[in-house]
Amino acid sequence: MILVAASFGMLLSGCMEWDYGEYEDFNITSPGLFITNEGNFQYGNATLSFYNPATKEIENEVFYRANAMKLGDVAQSMVIRDGIGWVVVNNSHVVFAIDINTFKEVGRITNFTSPRYIHFISDEKAYVTQIWDNRIFIVNPKKYQITGYIECPNMTMESGSTEQMVQYGKYVYVNCWSYQNRILKIDTETDQVVDELEVGIQPTSLVMDCNNKLWTVTDGGYEGSPYGHEAPSLYRIDAETFTIEKRFKFEFGDWPSEVQLNGTKDKIYWLNDDVWEMDVTADRAPVEPFLPYNGTLYYGLTICPRTGDVYVADAIDYVQQGMIYRYSKDKELIDEFYVGIIPGAFCWK
Amino acid sequence: MKRLILGLLLLAPSVLLAQINKRIFRIPEVTILGKRPMKEIGVQKTQMDSITLKENIALSMADVLTFNSSIFVKNYGRATLSTVAFRGTSPSHTQVTWNGMRINNPMLGMTDFSMIPSYFIDDASLLHGTSSVNETGGGLGGSVKLSTQPANAEGFGLQYVQGIGSFRTFDEFLRLTYGDDHWQSSTRLVYSSSPNEFSYRNHDKKENIYDEDMNIVGQYYPEEKNRSGSFKDMHVLQEVYYNTRRGDRFGLNAWYINSNRELPMLTTDYGEESAFENRQREEIFRGILSWDHMRENWKVAAKGGYIHTQMKYDYKRDAGTGTMVPMTRSRSKINTFYGQAEGEYYIGREWLFTANVAAHQHFVESRDKNIIRQDGNQAVVGYKKGRTELSGAASAKWQPNDRMGLSVVLREELYGESWTPVIPAFFVDGILSKKGNIMAKASVSRNFRFPTLNDLYFLPGGNPDLKRESGWTYDVGLSFAVGKEDVYSLSGSVNWFDSHVQDWILWLPTTKGFFSPRNVKDVHAYGTEWKGDLSLALAKDWNLTLNGTLSWTPSINEGEPMSPADQSVGKQLPYVPEWSSSVTGRLSWKRWSFLYKWCYYSERFTMSSNDISLTGKLPSYYMSNITLERGVSLKWAELSLKGAVNNLFNEEYLSVLSRPMPRINFEFFIGITPKF
User: What value of ipTM does the predicted structure carry?
Assistant: First the structure.
């Protein structure tokens, strides 16, 4: 009986231990690199990391540590404007505004459908693209409010997909990715789509070089897709005339992604197993990679606008801390550091 | 000499518990018998007793497994998807049969145990590791065997139970039975519903307090309701049995499920509940016709069955017009035809030969997404496939004397056009000491699991080049049983298992933005499982039973590193607790019964590298539930009054990251069984 009573006593003792509510004060004023770690879809374990290239110090989970709350589910992208970092958290339907030195939240915009990227038109107007929505949301960042929508033509809610944005004059260009093949041109004065350009199947990213040329790379769809499956291509598009100037075709079955620019915007980089580099004026794609495949699928890519260092993200098995490799523009490995789960996007401070 | 089958002896508490409704407690004498059930030679099995299964009408098999077995139940929320990790394996490594028919979803491979009301199950057992090869292939972790049985009714019978619980939860159960010498009929109906809006403190996010200039001047963790978590589940089970009393029995089992569940929002979701609808509706019909032909030393049986599953998933949002517009509209239909034949033949008392062959023919149509093609026409992303799955086994079991038994099983399976090599399984058991009834068991088997239809064909990402998973499992164990009739019985077992799984299939993201399965890991799962059962007559009319389990299940990734930076090799798989334990204690006095249920799961890692991060932490937790029941006998009916308290200590806990779980909550049940 004593044993039984003792056993019950043990059963009743103990409980789940949580350590909520602990803040950490940061004040990192130095330049650096934010890494948005997507985390696992539906698990709410997205994180934000900050790397100081000068000291090679990495701080992980800075949003959580500074705010004592989670960043959310699938951190998709981040941009900085006037000392405020805007972190788009896709499946949490939120865009957080944070102080880029303290990482503390200064505000948030909520109730998006499935936000992907944010682009500022002015202090009081920004666009937020969505997947599974045929609208681009217009927001007032000062008031943290959704103020309107841009209807995208020939898209239903279910097949809706708008992604990255670049601006040329009063026009914003946006690539439409999931089951799409277009670049849209939006007049920022009227908030209307005024033109569109067909490219290949599923353009994944969009940048604009020093010559005002847009670059996008398609992934070509996938085998069995009712939308089609083709060899991917890299496109150079003249922003002024909104026409395709050049198409660099990949092998069927290649998976290029992540078109990025260096600081002077005269070189583009992309992933296709290896890391590739090319002058924006080149007529032919390079035959040798900038960094050869090293046994893993890279997931993210960025180039330091100041030094030209190349940072590539290895998500490894997608359920552990990913690794960032930092190479000089001379291809020397300078540093490597672990960040969060699925490091997918970067933002330079 | 009084004889008691040793195998049954381990179930002594269940024998006792099964009688609780009649308030007759008897602890049987513990003696050794010469003949143990030959079918269970060397088998590691956990039997769920009927009182556990019928504890209350609100329980699902997920709840029963949580508190009565060593299996880890990964629970995505109240009345939400619940999958299992048996011996550190993944949900699709546990095969589930209902009256012999495999009910794992052929698209997903797994079974949602929250969709199986335990009141619909009369007999449930877990076959650990190798032991599952006796029943089916593919159970790299093991199998869960669920069955219904004739009600043994005499004339008409009726039972009605109503449950009312926290969060406006209502459960209704009705059973109608009829029986005579030849016929047995049973109709069961369960209906459960709740808005499921339990409150919890959300520590994953904060509410901001702004001043007029939209500066944050304060923050707090909000007390939130579980959002988008309502459910309405209906189950109807019709059974008819005809027994010729000359060795033939015919059976019909038909089970219809209509489930309408919202999928709860994550704790990290800042969307407005009213702006989204996230709902899954399922209709499932499972039907089986069976024939058993029994003779003194042989038996043949045949079964035919059919499963129809229709799953509808809708993710909608209000596009600002007040109308919900679909963002994802997914539809899938599965039709499965099933047939099985089996035979048993005894030669004397020493040999048993068995053979069985089962066929499942699946037809699957998955319509996952509607798109507009480049030519402007509409199209659907999905697949339409069929697959034939054959599984045949033959076994020979030999019990040359009272002390020893040997069994060999050879199984072979065909999935589509791919045959497995012969799957061998060997079992041995023996009595080491009649004093204390100490018995040793050992077994070894190979096993394979084929990719699911989604693994192969799902768009986008399905990988038709996947290899089947394969593994070897070794089991060795000891058990004992002691006792004194009407005083106490004590039994226990401990076993060690060691299992290697190669080519473990995982869905991983691709650079194209979707997931795709790959054969990536080799996993070494091993550990020990302990069980103990105690029945004690404390005093006149006072009885106590205790049942406990304890498992230690390291499940280690031993594959090749996926990249030079891979830190997962040599680490525990995510979401698999190393330790788990459960204890159930029941104290009875006359018509009163008090039940205490307790379970424990150790910390679960959320990363394959086993890093403990601030955002990916799932601490260990204890969970305690209690029930107090009183039986009342009236002239016209037997009444049962029951009150239950779940999460007794009001724990804030998580089974899965970002999925809120309810704190303390209450249920009250009243059961009426009229006396006709």
Answer: 0.93
